[in-house]
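Weekly modeling sync, notes
Attendees: AB, CL, MP (scribe)

Item 1: holo prediction request
CL wants a bound-state model with nicotinate mononucleotide before deciding which constructs to order. AB pointed out that an apo prediction alone won't tell us much about the pocket. Agreed to run with the ligand included and paste results into these notes for async review.

Input as submitted:
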Amino acid sequence: MTELTDLFTVPALDQGLRAPLRQALDGKAKPVGALGRIEDLALTLGLIQQTLRPAVVRPVLLVFAGDHGLTRSGVAAYPAGVTVAMVDTLLMGRASANAFAKVVGAQVQVIDAGVAADLSDRAGLVHAKVAPGTKDASTEPAMTPDQAQAALLEGAAMVRAAIDDGADMIALGEMGIGNSASAALLMHRLAPAPLIDCVGQGAGHSPEGMARKQAVLAQAAARSDATAPLEVLTQFGGFEIAMMAGALLGAARAGVPVIVDGFIGSAAALLAIRLAPNARDYCIFAHASAEAGHRRMLEAVEAQPLLGLDMRLGEGTGALLAVPLLKAACALLSDVAELKDILEAAR
Ligand SMILES: O=C(O)c1ccc[n+]([C@@H]2O[C@H](COP(=O)([O-])O)[C@@H](O)[C@H]2O)c1
Ligand SMILES: Cc1cc2nc[nH]c2cc1C
């Protein structure tokens, strides 16, 4: 329990380097402010890493996988078995996330946070299963309070191991059929926002499928009036979302920047921020997902995403595409000449 209290204690970001970083950016060989939000990104990274020379050399993507009991009530169009099939694809290096990771030079780790199938024989998989999937949140709590806490702590342990191995940037991804339904319920209670504004297509839905998803989620929401973050997580799931939130808090506590992916990743970030508001300052929101509700969720955490590519895949694919922007922001501070030298040469 003490460990959990520790996890929720994220120190406020030290703002001491803000002025020197601004000055360094203004002093680079370019018109003041001409690199727009890349300059803001450089400043953010400098503050998080507490240096005038931030670096993103070893980015690591953690992909948390989990199954959702809500799928038994028909919230997802794709079969629940796709979760384990995609875990295997990720382990084989053949998922979109692997392809993008290769392009941007990131390492990928796949974590069983709560997949229903027994995956103990899978080589290369990080085994952190809290339970074989959540319960159906439309009829009962998704998990027990103990399981919620265990998942948060596992996520933090996972990120600590990655940082000990040299990771200087953590990207968070997920795989879990049905998890856009859990994420919608979390957003509904934690943003907060009307449920109807939180429910989107997920991986895809027919109009009838959407109507069923909305009805099932209304039933889930009617079952519990929870608004406290830990209780909301316990009621609505899921294990991979809990683990992402724990990982985010662990990274923030270690002063390591976190790239948040799409709708489900942002729900995990929202949960982490409601548990420890200072965690917000360690997050970089990669992209605006095409999932309805994501824009509003981003507003709830006062985030302006870097990219808008109409993506809604998950796996951390959007987070990975933001990595080159982060590297460019670092290179601006480390590699670019000084404006004063340019002006002198121009005299
Ligand atoms: O990241 C997003 O914005 C996003 C939006 C919609 C769906 N997804 C992915 O699709 C799955 C969830 O969709 P669903 O319909 O099964 O709830 C899950 O594996 C997510 O990674 C991801
Ligand atoms: C094939 C497939 C791959 C995914 N990756 C993340 N969510 C997904 C959902 C589906 C259906």
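Recorded for review: The CA atoms of residues 77 and 206 lie 8 Å apart.
Action items: CL to compare against the apo run; MP to circulate these notes.
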